[in-house]
Amino acid sequence: MKTVILFFKKDFWEESSYPFFYISKIFKIFFALTMLYYLSKYLEIENGSDSIFPYLFSGHIFYEFLIKYLKLPSSILISELYKGTLEYLFNGKLHPYSIPILSNIYRLFIDYFILLSYIFVGIFFLNIKVNLSLFNIFFLHLVFLGALILVFSWGLIGSAITLLTKKGDPITTGWLYFSILAGGIYFPSTILPSAINIFNFIFPIQTWMELFRELFYNNHFMYQKYLILIIYDIILVLFSTNLFNFILKIAKKRGNLHSY
Asked: Is 259 contained in some domain?
């Protein structure tokens, strides 16, 4: 717990050193929702439908809270490399794979409140209709946790490649763009060619998105799909942590942890 607090404090002082950090976060919420709201109004007029904004709203908050964490683990390692502290971090007593995770604790904390702010604005100002019973709130947290494990695990794989190349990773960049294109974030993936949807079996963000929407709007929790995805998460966690530890050993031998 002490280690978590230390990482939290470090990131807090770094982020809050920028005086407009929190103001920019608040501005981003209102700007994004205003843009999506009027875009949906235009599309609803064109298509005679009134269900476009709830679709865009749920997709956007899912993206804002989760999918961007694909790139963060590798971005943090690159940042520590530039500051010359990467080798020091990995020579400590912490499990190596816990460093990219702990370095995101503060961001997760802030983004959780941003997520709540999105939902608050959507319900009270934009007429989003949801059922926020205790049942719903509990299982929504389970869905977000499961999806977060998926995203962090792939992010860990990406950060392992970053350690190996010292330049970045193409995997998480690819999954990030794939999520926007075929993850059901801003439009249904069913309109895409079936060949593209094959990748959802490897990176099933679309299914997590489906679970979230079904629970968020219809108060229906799809237990069987959730169980399958959790099993996939467990396998992915074991693979990503072992791969990260293996590549870290190679990176240490090559001297890749030294700053430029």
From this structure: no
Look at residue 260 and tell me whether its pLDDT is greater than 60: no
**Is residue 217 in some structural domain?**
yes
Q: What is the mean predicted confidence (pLDDT) over 174-199? A: 86
The pLDDT value given to residue 243: 94
In a domain, 195, yes or no: yes
Q: Per this entry, what is the length of the chain?
A: 260
For the chain, how many structural domains are there in total?
Answer: 1
Task: Please report the pLDDT score of residue 19 as a whole number.
Answer: 66
**Please, what is the Cα angle at 29 between 25 and 31, to 5 degrees?**
110
Rounded-to-integer distance, Cα 208 and Cα 214, Å:
10
Contacts of 155 (CB under 8 A, 6+ apart): 69, 70, 71, 72, 73, 74, 100, 172
CA atoms within 13 A on the CB side of 92: 12
What 3 state SS string does the chain have?
Answer: CHHHHHHHHHHHHHHHCCCCHHHHHHHHHHHHHHHHHHHHHHHHHHHCCCCHHHHHHHHHHHHHHCHHHHCHHHHHHHHHHHHCCHHHHHCCCCCCCHHHHHCCHHHHHHHHHHHHHHHHHHHHHCCCCCCCCHHHHHHHHHHHHHHHHHHHHHHHHHHHHHHHHCCCCHHHHHHHHHHHHHCCCCCCHHHCCHHHHHHHHCCCHHHHHHHHHHHHHHCCCCHHHHHHHHHHHHHHHHHHHHHHHHHHHHHHHHCCCCCC
Average pLDDT over all residues of the chain: 86
pLDDT at 145: 93
What residues make up the domain containing 101? 2-254
Phi, psi of 128 (to 5 degrees): -75, 125
